[in-house]
């Protein structure tokens, strides 16, 4: 009995910690123009999905509540209709339903083609390229073209294919302990760290010249 209580206390502690780190998203209604305290769709969904990635230990019931509390009609009405149709609908279906109503008109196949043809642009940092791939992947998942568990592997593979201006960074990534399919946050942090190290080395070289 005591063991169970200790385990529950630890879980509650982790949840309350996540709750303290919770940043409530701005409102989204789907109306145009958006009110002063509201975001338009792309801004709102990018913010919410980034936070969902941080809420990996938060129960889906709580994630659904957080999404609902950031919505206003008519967007809130769409979720209300979904709840009536399927009271157990997960948060991923909430976002998919909103995507259908307010998101990109590009098909899932079109987004996939854009993803597979994505390359680092001249002057674009590798970390910025990772973030751009992630935005595309989020849209692809919302369109139902890719399962969430496959995202890490596809992101890493396309990143390695698409980096054109930093071969040394790719070499360092392969030598690191990231593994073949790191999640977005781990990959982004590692890439940024390597970029910072490269910038420092360049600075030291310029001082020696």
TrEMBL record:
Residue ranges of domain Paraneoplastic antigen Ma-like C-terminal in the record: 28-188
InterPro entries in the cross-refs: PNMA, PNMA_C
Coiled-coil stretches noted in the UniProt entry, renumbered to this chain: none
Protein name: Paraneoplastic antigen Ma1-like
